[in-house]
Every structure is written in C-alpha cells, then in structure tokens.
Amino acid sequence: MDVAELNRILKGKLLRRMPKTGDCPLGFGGAGVYRRDESDVAENCFYRPLVTVTVQGAKWSTVGGEKFRLRENEFLAAAVDMPAQNYVVGASREKPFLSISLDLDRNVISGLLSEYPELAPSGGECKGAETAKIDGGLLGAFLRLYELSENPREAKFMAPILIREIHLRLLMGPLGGQIRAINTPDTSGHRISKAISWLRANYKEPIEIGGLSKLAGMSPASFHRHFKKVTEMSPLQYRKRLRLYEARRLMLAENETAAGAAYAVGYESPAQFSRDYRSVFGNPPKRSLRP
Questions:
Q1: Cβ neighbours of residue 272 closer than 8 Å, sequence gap 6 or more
Q2: Residue 44 β-bridge partners
Q3: Of 243, 286, 249, which Cα lies nearest the Cα of 267?
Q4: Is the pLDDT of residue 76 over 90?
Q5: What is the DSSP string of 151-174?
Q6: Rg (CA), the chain
Q7: N or C: which terminus of the chain carries fewer CB neighbours within 10 A?
Q8: Could you give phi then psi for residue 93, rounded to 5 degrees?
C-alpha cells in the first residue's frame, strides 16, 4: 500500500479510538496517540528521545531552539532530551489534529548498530531533532504498531519485534544519520548526549562549562559549539528550560507556590524566576497556579 492508503486506514482507526481530544497511551514502548480539536493553544513539554508522526493536520513544534512545521505524513525524530512547545494549527472538531509517537530506546539502537556495523555514522555534525516525509515502510510499521494495541495478547509477544523494526527503519531512513551519530560512542553527538543526561539529572546545580566539557571529552570552545549544534541552545539556556519546565510541573501537578517552585529547582531569586518564566511561557508564574 502507498502512503495515502496507509494514512487513510490509520486515520480512521485513530478517529474511532479517540472520539474527542486527548492523549491515549498504547501500553508498550512509550507509544501513544494524540488528538487535538483546538487550534492556537501552546502545549509545553520535555521530549524524551522519540519519533512522532503527524497523521492528520499540522502543527508548529519548537524543539530545543529550532522551530519546525509538521504536516500530514511528516515525522519528527528527537534523538536527545529536548524542551519542546507544540502549537496545533487549523484543527477543529470536524477535522482534528492526529499523531502517533514512539519513544526511542537507546538499548535497541545500540544493539542494531552493533548487529549492523554498516550503519555506522559517516561523521560530521549532527542535530538533536529534525523532520522528514514518511515513507510507506515506516508508516505501515506504525499502523501495525497501533493495531497491536487492539490485541493485548499479541502485543505482549509482537510489540518488541515491531518496535525493533521501527528503530531499524529510522536508522536506515532520512534521519538515520542524526540518530546513529547521537548513539555511537566517541562521536561528538554521543558526547553531547552524555552532557545532556548529566544536566537533566543535576539541573539544580550551578553549571561549570569546564566540568561539562571535561565530561564530554572536549575543550570548552568545542563543547559549546557542538552543544549548540545539537540543541540550538547554549548549555545555560538548556539548563534554564529544564528548571522552568520542572517548576511549571510542580505548580500544576503538585500545587506548589511560585516561590516554592523557584527555590525547588535551583533559583535563588524569585524575581529572576518570574522574569525567566514569563519569557518562556508568556505569562507570569501566578497564572499557572491552581485557583
């Protein structure tokens, strides 16, 4: 089947599964489907490494410091943890935005790269996120992945096989170079990914570029250049987003005060926290507090 026919089948299944706006985990591999009936609403999140496919509609996604427009039958692959803001355009109750996503599993990727050494990266710079048009092979694999969620007994046995296939198709596809580079030891992308993992675990701590560059095995100048190439942000900007997203979560999910959230994520000045929060989310922190 061609892409148009595969899209038609998957679209129909998603609409039957999700009669109204919302998120629906599929129960394996971090896979999920999403429906949005509203436009012009910014949704902020922190992407894990993932691939997300637009099945219907369009959205703007700012991932790290780069903005992408995702249309129907296009996909985005984020190879490292990245702050993201999604902004659906043109959606309605009659024609909602629909997408399906899957977490990227570093263990699966490493295993495939070991099994197929011909997939080794060819060198050069890499980006942490990029978009491409989907082909029938990859879209068909996502259709079968969704269909597994309708048969839990089969999913238990077949999901790992199909998830592996999707990873292999991604590695062989137009965005495979960036995924391979981030996950191959001793590449600049892999070294930056190690620094990103440290930042995610230690975002409350002060940043010492010298220490981070040493962790990555680079000079400070080289580290800063490669970090910005991968994320389109400086290490300080990335750390600030980590803090702000966690503070927002604390206020929304745990009913924390603005000042309490600021101190919890490492800010020493609530006033500075308020300025940074407004610059990223467009409103002061008090707008995120529960009534």
A1: none
A2: 85
A3: 243
A4: yes
A5: -HHHHHHHHHHHHHHHHHHHHHST
A6: 20
A7: C
A8: -60, -40
Name residue, tokens 């679209």: 11
pLDDT in tens, 121-148: 766 568 899 999 999 999 999 999 999 9
Look at residue 291 and tell me whether its pLDDT is greater than 60: no
CA-CA-CA-CA torsion sign (218, 224, 225, 228): positive
Asked if residues 80 and 194 have their Cβ atoms less than 8 Å apart, the reply is no
Residue 90 has pLDDT above 60, yes or no: yes
Mean pLDDT value across residues 83-104: 95
pLDDT, residue 234, reads 94
Residue-averaged pLDDT of the chain: 92
The rounded distance, in Å, linking the Cα atoms of 33 and 54 is 10
User: Within a 13 Å sphere around the CA of 138, how many CA atoms are in the beta-carbon half?
Assistant: 28
CB distance 33 to 98 below 8 Å: yes
Give me the phi and psi of 248, to 5 degrees please: -60, -40
Q: Tell me the per-residue pLDDT of 227-250, one tens digit each, with 9 for 90 and over.
A: 999 999 999 999 999 999 999 989
Q: Say how far apart CA 18 and CA 157 lie, in whole Å.
A: 25
Write the CB contacts of 214 (distance below 8 Å, at least 6 apart in sequence): none
